[in-house]
Amino acid sequence: MTDLLNDIYTDGCKAKKYRLSDFFNRWWDEYAQHPAEYITPEQYKAVNAIRVCRTTALGIDTYVCPDCGEVREISHSCKHRFCPSCGWRDTLKWAARMKDKMLRVPHRHVVMTLPHILLDLVKRNKKELLNILMRTSADTLKDWMMHKFGLKIGVIAVLHTYGETKQLHVHTHMIMSWGGIDNGGKIAVPEHDYVHIPSIRKVFRYKFENALIELFDTGRLEHDFHDRMEFIVYQLTLRFLSTYQLSAEVENILSLNSYIDNFMMLVLCMGLAFELPLVTWLLSLLGIVNKSFLRKYRRHAIVIIVIAAAIITPTGDPFTLSVVAIPLYLLYEMSILMIKDKKKTEEEIEDEIALSEE
After folding, report:
1. Residues 31, 35: Cα–Cα separation, whole Å
2. DSSP string of 123-191?
3. Whole-angstrom Cα distance, residue 102 to residue 175?
4. Which in 74, 93, 313, 316 has the greatest CB count within 10 A?
């Protein structure tokens, strides 16, 4: 297998028109002067190694054919694990070693992803959160297979931090054995292939949330939350945003900054809504509104409240709609109760009597 992959690798390198080092040599110095984000020492080290890989800067080995006298010079490689040339060879060797260790049973490919709203926390807590992702994703599959089939399986996990578009997209690729060691110590394969994806998703979210809360409680999480209550509210919002989706064709791209902005705007809007009785009372003192006016247009107010609740709530189910609409309606009724009845003048009483007689 190793020889075959090496042949593929060699042919692929010959077909490449550009190397990653070409782009670094052309643009890196200019970008490093005004980077979009902080460049870590590890990133500087990787870029510098890639730029000098297979160049005379690292030295040259000279080979001479004893028969024909042909001379060929081979530049040294950087041997950095992020180098596409050097790292790829190590990847092929690692893949060959893993293949020899795999059970002779069917396997499945599983991908688990973190929602983008967590990316800001990931940037500030790379080691901790990435370790949690790798551990909880593998534990989820192993626990599910043990609970469902009573099998102890094997999992090979690889961390990917960027997607195909080269944007930060933290996820893990796993190869899980669709079979494992049963209680009797024998290798067994499940009789059916059905997998209940929603249940696995819930278990993974539960495990990751618990590990994240533990990280917060022990003071090992770098964050901007003021207290534990704000962090828990963030967790609940994260749970909703990670499951809510307009369409399968629409990707949710959320960040911690956008979440905080939306959360503060929501708090402001709800604060203004709860001031409705006070505002109505002040307007009544100015003679702009009165109790009879609010009662007369109660039905119109209900329609407006339902429309506002439909705009605020992202889903159209009756329960979520009522959670927002009912408090707003109660505030409207409270506004009516807070306004004192206006004393009628003698002329208004005579007008009402005349209208009733007609």
Report:
1. 5
2. HHSHHHHHHHHHHHHHHHHHHHHHHHH--B--EEEEEEEE-TTSSEEEEEEEEEES-EE-TTS-EE--S
3. 10
4. 313
Q: Count of residues for the chain? A: 358
In 3D space, the residue among 57, 52, 43, 46 whose CA is nearest the CA of residue 22 turns out to be 52
As a whole number of Å, the end-to-end CA separation of the chain is: 102
What residues are paired with 181 via a beta bridge? 152, 187
Q: Which residues of 139-156 are buried (b: 16+ CB within 10 A; e: fewer)?
A: ebbbebbeeebebebbbb
Of 132, 158, 248, 146, nearest in space to 200 by CA: 146
Report the distance separating Cα 230 and Cα 116, nearest Å: 19
Phi, psi for residue 231 in degrees, rounded to 5: -65, -40
Q: Is the pTM of this model over 0.70?
A: no
Task: Name, in order, each residue with C-beta under 8 angstroms of 122's C-beta and a sequence gap of 6 or more.
Answer: 114, 129, 130, 168, 170
Q: In which residue ranges of the chain is pLDDT below 50? A: 1-2, 4-13, 246-247
pLDDT, position 242: 58
Q: Looking at the DSSP assignment, which residues form a beta bridge with residue 235?
A: none
Q: How confident is the model over 93-131, as pLDDT tens digits?
A: 888 998 888 888 999 999 999 888 888 889 889 999 999
Residue with tokens 């059905």: 194
User: How much is the pLDDT for 295?
Assistant: 85
